[in-house]
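Problem: given the chain below (196 residues), write out its structure.
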Amino acid sequence: YRIAGVQPGTYILKESSQAGWTQTAPDGDGVYFISVGAGGLIDSKDFANRRVDTAIHGRKWADFNGNGERDISEPWINGWTIEVRNSNGDVVASTQTMEMDLNNNNTIEPETEAGWYWFQGLPAGSYTVSEVVKDGWQQTYPSSGSHQVALTEDQPITGLHFGNKPSTEIHGQKWHDLNNNGSHDTNEPGLNGWTI
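Solution.
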């Protein structure tokens, strides 16, 4: 890096942190205190960072039989929102389940490469991983509704899956059976206000 046109004076030189990275130099508080004179050159004020190697990942499936276990006939599904919350309950990361070409063959195998979510580079700490349940679905796994994790560097957390079944609904109609034949004829009006 190079910063030109600096006016004489005293400055604090620091970097702007980026998610997924840990600063390793300079030591201490990670800043340089410098005094700039007219026409001066200050060099060797270097910064170093290390990629934070943390990961949380899992998959999302359609639990059609609602047993909380993924059966081979139940598909992995894309397009569901997965959130990571910190210990204060704030959402710190969010993504959608998606297809991932894990073997880089330009073909998606639904059994192994669909329904994935992946978070990488979060700071070490305690988190809650949960899904946003879509209308018309009920969560079947995990039974607690979310996964609690203690994330540490170099220890990826895997297998945090979510299962949902379509909601069961019963539909019908209440009508005035004018001719008492037990069949809904076109001239027989619906009746509102009845408890079913």
